[in-house]
Design a protein that fits this description.
about 550 residues; single chain; six-stranded antiparallel β-sheet; 18 helices; alpha/beta; eight-stranded parallel barrel
């Protein structure tokens, strides 16, 4: 075992657990030997060119057999990475983020055998696979917790956090304000309380117990051996708790991440770890470490700034969000992941009160779409732009013009809108009016398949517009490995960026207003949409955009 792993272990657990360290070493050596026997074409940096498509298997295709049948659709769209939202065995009280068994695919999705077949089919199309693993907590139906809550003497008791009253970790904020009123819940069988940062049916794991880390490493490596290319580390800032702190983003959290990353890389480099850390970028960059923690992290605060720029026709919101004072430089091999929408809310937690008020005024078209008492907005992309395909495509163009890996949320490429029936049914089932159910409904394939054969349909227009953006982004992928240069323009509604790499100069121009604009260019360039040479000023229609390229080798 690598000495780095042993050093990191001792930083977290000291020298008091030699037997546990020996078990970790044995696990890593066995996994390393197994992976060495598998035919692979390692590319540890593959994620830097990822175009990610995020989906719920059941909502998108029913099960893994259905998803296998839809791989041609995804390959035609052009995505090269799938982020599968929770697929592990679960009671489904939080759409799979409450995991009952970390090594079992839900039966209704086809189970482990169907998933293994799907992995092979996806890899044959050069599509990589990521999936969610809640690392901070389990379901209260997990056998570990069932044993722990039934008996104080259970060997699994210390897998969770218990206290005779609720006077511990008082600095930990309530994450689900308005839905959960305490981070502690009473357990009648043992007459004490257990700790949870989310719903009461999601008890937090206790990483102070080295057995928990080893068990979770075993889960990670199990799926790595099956062929999974990466894991989204759900709720990673919360995994370590310290009395007298807010129990978030603590130094030992980062040491644990380094240990997990070192262990996975020791077995085989290239497993992508994504930090789901909903914080300001200056804090999120800590989850990259020195290229030795997570390789990727979400840029949550950028998401609302795209919408603010569009609503007010002012590029400064995006430029300010990407400026070094807000988004610091990151290690060379690390990358941001950005999106316009996802399975969660459009977070407003880190914007100013003024911007939060404006976002709710501009985009809260239905009061039921509010989340966390105004700190978030639920709802689909097409709902947010009031079903205007031009604005939907423009937002996608801005996303694809940004460095890092762009993420598409299933159905947004065909104008899927809110599913109010799904929201009401699941709110009734769970007992929580969780607005995020608005954007978690089923893909309507009968409608989509028919519309994609009708060139005049909104679905056709959006699908082919996004498909074109993906094609351009993949063709000039090297241009997005570094920050862009913003180009000045007296009109704040003109958002222009310049990138260059591999002998190409790429200029991307957006019109954030409902009024046509003209933009000067400084040299002849090729318009990628028409493949025509453009000389002099170019005209952009309302909410239009253009990608221009020139050869810099000559």
């Amino acid at each position: 075992m690598d000495s780095t792993i042993e050093t990191l272990w001792h930083h977290v657990y000291g020298a008091d657990h030699p037997e546990a360290l020996s078990r970790l070493s044995e696990l890593l050596e066995t996994s390393r030997q197994t992976l060495a026997q598998q035919p692979t074409t390692p590319d540890p940096d593959w994620y830097r060119n990822a175009i990610v498509y995020s989906l719920y298997v059941d909502a998108f295709a029913g099960d893994f057999t259905g998803l296998t049948d839809r791989l041609d659709y995804l390959a035609t769209l052009g995505v090269n990475t799938l982020w599968l939202l929770p697929i592990l065995d679960s009671p489904m009280r939080d759409q799979g983020f409450d995991i009952r068994d970390f090594k079992t695919i839900r039966a209704e999705l086809g189970g482990n055998a169907a998933f293994t077949g799907f992995i092979q089919a996806a890899h044959q199309r050069d599509i990589r696979l990521l999936f969610d693993m809640a690392v901070n907590h389990s379901s209260d139906q997990h056998p570990w917790f069932q044993a722990a809550r039934a008996d104080r003497n259970s060997p699994y008791r210390d897998y969770y956090i218990w206290h005779p009253d609720r006077e511990r970790y008082q600095g930990a904020r309530l994450i689900f304000k308005g839905m959960v009123n305490s981070n502690w819940s009473y357990n009648e069988a043992t007459d004490d309380y257990y700790f949870h940062r989310f719903y009461s049916f999601q008890p937090d794991l206790n990483y102070r117990n080295p057995d928990v880390l080893i068990a979770m490493m075993e889960n990670f490596l199990y799926w790595k051996i099956q062929g999974v290319d990466g894991l989204r580390m759900d709720a990673i800032p919360f995994i370590w708790k310290e009395e007298g702190t807010n129990c978030e983003d603590l130094p030992t959290t980062h040491t644990l991440l380094k240990l997990i990353r070192a262990g996975l890389d020791y077995c085989e480099p290239g497993t992508l770890l994504i930090a789901e850390a909903n914080m300001k970028p200056k804090d999120v960059v800590g989850y990259f470490g020195n290229d030795d923690e997570c390789q990727a992290a979400y840029h949550f605060p950028l998401m609302p700034q795209f919408y603010m720029a569009l609503a007010e026709g002012n590029r400064r919101y995006i430029e300010d969000a990407l400026s070094p004072s807000v988004t610091p430089a990151i290690p060379e091999k690390s990358c941001w992941m950005s999106f316009l929408r996802c399975h969660d809310e459009l977070t407003l937690e880190f914007v100013s009160p003024e911007v939060r008020e404006k976002m709710n005024r501009y985009y809260l078209h239905n009061p039921e779409c509010t989340f966390r008492e105004g700190e978030g907005l639920a709802g689909r992309l097409f709902y947010l732009v009031k079903e205007d395909p031009a604005q939907a495509l423009l937002l996608n163009a801005m996303l694809f013009a940004t460095e890092g890996s762009p993420i598409l949320y299933y159905g947004d490429e065909v104008g899927m809108t809110n599913d109010e029936t799904f929201y009401r049914e699941n709110s009734a089932r769970t007992g929580f009016k969780d607005a995020r159910f608005m954007n978690r409904g089923d893909m309507s394939w009968s409608k989509v398949d028919a519309a994609l054969n009708q060139p005049g349909s909104v679905e056709h227009q959006l699908f082919h517009g996004v498909q074109q953006l993906i094609e351009w982004r993949r063709r000039f992928a090297a241009c997005f490995h570094r920050s862009a240069r913003f180009l000045a323009n007296p009109n704040p509604a003109v958002y222009s960026l310049e990138r260059d790499a591999s002998g190409h100069r790429l200029v991307i121009v957006h019109n954030l207003s409902a009024t046509p604009v003209e933009v000067e260019i400084d040299q002849p360039m090729t318009d990628l949409a028409s493949n025509q040479t453009v000389i002099g000023p170019i005209g952009l229609p309302a909410f239009g955009f253009v990608w221009l390229v020139s050869d810099t080798t000559g």
